[in-house]
Amino acid sequence: MGLLLSAVALAIYWASAHAFDAGRPDLFYLADAFLHGRTWLSVPLGPYDVIFYNGHYYVPFPPFPSIAFLPLVAVTGPAVAHQWEPLINGSLAATDVGLAWWLLGRLGVVRLGDRFWLTVLLALSTPIWWVTTRGGVWHTGHLMAVMLTLGALIEVFGARRPWLLGLLVGAAFLTRPPLAFAVPYFAWAVGAPPAVDLGLEATPAGFRLPSWLEPERWPWRRWIALGLGVLPAVAFFFWYNAVRFGSPLESGYELATLPGWLAALRDQGLFSISHLGMNIDYLFLHLPKLIPEFPWFKPDGLGLSIFLTSPGLLLALRADWRSRQSWALALTFAIVLLPDLLYYGGGWLQYGYRYALDAIPFAFALCGLAAARHGVDWFWRLLIAIGVLVNLGGVYWAYHL
Prior knowledge:
Layout: H1 2-17, H2 26-35, E1 51-53, E2 56-58, H3 64-68, H4 70-76, H5 78-83, H6 85-106, H7 112-124, H8 128-134, H9 137-156, H10 162-173, H11 183-191, E3 201-203, E4 206-208, H12 220-245, H13 260-267, H14 276-285, E5 289-290, E6 297-298, H15 306-309, H16 324-341, H17 360-374, H18 378-398
Antiparallel strand pairs: 1-2, 3-4, 5-6
């Protein structure tokens, strides 16, 4: 069933995206540069989001997708990979769909109907559909980051092998940097539950401190294994920055070319409280304009309220809040989303708030926990269906904005 849903999703994504060319195949050309021992491109692939430094053109975006594309580009070359981009992105998104189905099984969602509707929620009622349709260097990373995060969550609710979690989380960080803020959750997960207790424990002598306040009871070996899994990605991040810009802490986002109005926002700070109101609007409040002709509404490309695009995610509120796992997932959702909300970029051009994809897998896991307890009744199915219809409008506007 999961494979069938993935195949259907791939067909939908291909039908939506095959006629659109974003014209920014930076990730494929960066993979080709890596294959030739370079960290720079021979020519810029666009006027903006390009870094010109010491006579070379650099890509400011994180490098793991290009690393993942090395075998493909080695066989096809970057130009052919660019031509295949709608199929490549559709395949990444379809993999996300299959992993969502797998995760729901790990979470205890046993009824196939419930798993189907929640898989549809992730596939067609989140920004995954939009970023797959639009393509380009800005969007491919989202699809790969969701894939890596879902894989890590599958492992959390499975064997919880710390070295594998470390590799997945490290790769996710090299794909979407805000996912670095998910590391505390995975560190907690490799040792808890039941190894980490958050309340006072009764003993024959009375009470003792919870285990997380007793260092001798911490899962040191598992944390070290997790850290060793993350270490290659962190080391590569610092080396990659240093070899390009002379500093391990300079990622290039401060140096990228931007249109004037966006550069003015960056001048207020790459991350700043001053951007919070803008991003909260794009995520929660932004509405389209009503127009008199089909399809009777028009987005402005800056954002669209998640309550319109993904109302089914509210099912997460029905998770068991007596569970430490629910609180850990909710807290991780919030702290992963926080740097996006403080970031100057806003995510444009977008239908919905695409940066939310960094955190949505954690909300999706909460939806799965809620469905395992309560199921997905007609009300939640209706909300998911509404979200699918709204995102179907995004396919139209991908070609008409």
